[in-house]
Amino acid sequence: IYGLGCISRGCSKPIEPYLPTLIPFLFSMFSDNSPLIRSILCWILSRYTSWIFKQEDKAFYFNRLIQQLLEKTQDNNKRVQKYAVTAIASIVENCQQKKILPYMDAISSYFNLALQNYHQRNLVVLYEAINTLS
Q1: What's the pLDDT score for residue 10?
Q2: Of 92, 80, 88, 94, nearest to 29 (Cα)?
């Protein structure tokens, strides 16, 4: 699956016809037992945000993406937490404000929980993400 993230920038057009099948498959892998898989999924899906934004079924794609990433900010694994926060910050930074505005309350709530639970290294990542939100 790592290759999907690697080709997302240079080869996004050729892979686009397969994304309606690939993205739901990637969503289903968020429950994988491996923290490495879950962290890579955060990164991969954040790289396909522009495609996800274009989809008519926002509830299935974008809402699900944000919810999955927010849940992963509370993951037991610190690497998964870091990648989830970084992915959310990347999405916020790269999308139009009006598109992300409806999700800001949920993002703020999850980031508030993270502030209470994160330790030194992930706190730095979280502070940077909070700065992106402002």
Answers
A1: 64
A2: 80
